[in-house]
Design brief:
The protein contains 13 helices and eight strands. With 418 residues, the chain is an alpha+beta fold. The model has no long low-confidence stretch (mean pLDDT 93). Bound molecules: flavin-adenine dinucleotide. Flavin-adenine dinucleotide binds next to strand 1, strand 3 and helix 13.
Length: 418
């Protein structure tokens, strides 16, 4: 067997792309070809569309795909969390039924974790799943569910045993969102978008084969999903942007981005748009104000440091090293950068930062930054929860006192019914 090196992998994937990439193919047809070759997700197991490539060589393949102009597998949205969770805990049936269609982009997913009474305390979920005959019947309410209004499947956390302690009575399911018992209602945000929903589950059904792991293992599976979510919320996060090149595959990708990425349109603004700070400071002349210059410099330094930290975390991950403190800090630092960037945008634009509409600064983008940034310190675990995690797991400080983890969940005082 020839030894895998960066040069050999680069040469092999380049030759494959030269022989196979054709922008006139349909998007799904092309992605299926890419998936069959193993180059779409080269770090995945050979058995499941990958090549078992060592993590350090995966970026080489991504670089070559980008260089050739070819389109990669579908990666945006909750589908990547679904794929990571199914790869880690799913059965053969789950992998056969879902993985390929996640990668082609044919199915979209949502994450049904948060509830009106359990967000940070997601293990306090009271949505119930009960076995009735040969299926699970689900009743309850979820909230803040991004993309639920167009999702095909949901990653569902539900309580299956009320007599076990909080974390032990939960189970994890894959639920078909297209059924009469599932109703998604969009919620309008203060930035004008409606990217998440409240989801009402009324006698919704899940067949037993769509339980992930065992009954009662829901918390462990949820932890896997959340770990991947937080890992992806660092300074290296990027947003799908369609190419302006010509060809059927590009046209179809642009259409895909327009619909699937609609809920994420404001996510760059939520990260603070550090990239707009200098152009806007030059355009307004505020770059000449020494106080503003100093604040701009602080944000740019903070943002660059966050990027380097995130690179260090990704490299460690790619080399298969255990996650160090930098992994836990990434999400928290992204919140700090976003907040600092929003503050500097107001210093640069002054009261004009509040204006929306086509004749306002950057067509309303600055105002959108101000009302979108708060989401960064909430989504995927709040700043306070991140600090708790860092204190307990990284700094090994004493754990937060708990009054509800050692008794049957039924007996835990709470402000929600279930
Ligand atoms: C843009 C966005 C997208 C989202 N998408 C999804 C999604 O797709 N699916 C999904 O399930 N959820 C989603 N969420 C929900 C998100 O996970 C929750 O909002 C988050 O976990 C916080 O929960 P909560 O809103 O119930 O706030 P709460 O948990 O009620 O928190 C309220 C306040 O109390 C603080 N607090 C709570 N507990 C502690 C503690 N132990 N120590 C210190 N302070 C504490 C919090 O930090 C916060 O400031 C999304 C949220 C946002 C903003």
């Amino acid at each position: 067997m020839t030894e895998l090196t960066e040069a050999s992998v680069r040469a092999e994937v380049r030759a494959w792309l030269e022989a196979n990439w054709n922008p006139e193919l349909g998007l799904i047809e092309w992605r299926n070809k890419l998936i069959d070759s193993g180059w779409g997700v080269p770090g995945w197991p050979k058995e499941w569309y990958g090549r078992d490539l060592p993590p350090g060589l995966v970026p080489v393949v991504e670089e070559e795909i980008q260089r050739s102009g070819a389109i990669g597998v579908a990666k945006a949205g909750i589908r990547t969390l679904a794929a990571a969770t199914i790869l880690a805990h799913g059965t053969k049936l789950h992998k056969e039924k879902f993985l390929r269609r996640i990668l082609t982009g044919e199915d979209t997913w949502c994450q049904l974790f948060s509830e009106p009474g359990s967000g940070s305390d997601v293990a306090g979920a009271v949505t119930r799943a009960e076995l009735s005959g040969n299926k699970w019947v689900v009743n309850g309410q979820k909230v803040w569910t991004t993309s639920a209004h167009h999702a095909d499947y949901g990653l569902l956390l539900a309580r299956t045993d009320w007599d076990k302690p909080k974390h032990k009575g939960l189970s994890y399911f894959i639920i078909d969102m297209h059924q009469p018992g599932v109703k998604a209602q969009p919620l309008k945000q203060m930035n004008g978008h409606a990217s998440f929903n409240q989801v009402f589950l009324t006698d919704a059904e899940v067949m037993p084969e769509f339980l992930v792991a065992n009954v009662g293992d829901g918390w462990a599976v949820t932890t896997t999903t959340l770990m991947h979510e937080r890992r992806g919320a660092d300074a290296l996060r990027s947003w799908a942007v369609g190419s302006d090149r010509k060809g059927r595959a590009y046209d179809e990708e642009r259409a895909e981005i327009a619909t699937v990425m609609e809920p994420y349109k404001w996510y760059p603004q939520r990260a603070g748009r550090v990239d707009l700070i200098l152009p806007r400071a030059r355009e307004t002349g505020r770059i000449d104000d020494p106080v503003v210059r100093q604040e701009i410099a602080k944000v740019l330094i903070m943002s660059k440091s966050a990027e380097w930290l995130a690179r260090r975390a990704r490299t460690a991950q790619e080399l298969g090293r255990p996650q160090g403190p930098e992994g836990s800090l990434g999400k928290l630092i992204s919140s700090n950068v976003a907040r600092a960037a929003a503050r500097v945008h107001t210093q640069i634009s002054g009261a004009d930062a509040l204006l929306t509409g086509d004749d306002s600064p950057m067509k309303g983008v600055i105002a959108e930054i101000l009302v979108s940034v708060p989401a960064t310190s909430i989504a995927g675990g709040t700043d306070e929860i991140q600090r708790n995690i860092i204190a307990e797991r990284v700094l090994k400080m004493p754990k937060e006192p708990s009054i509800d983890t050692d008794k049957p969940f039924r007996d835990v005082p709470r402000n929600t019914v279930g």
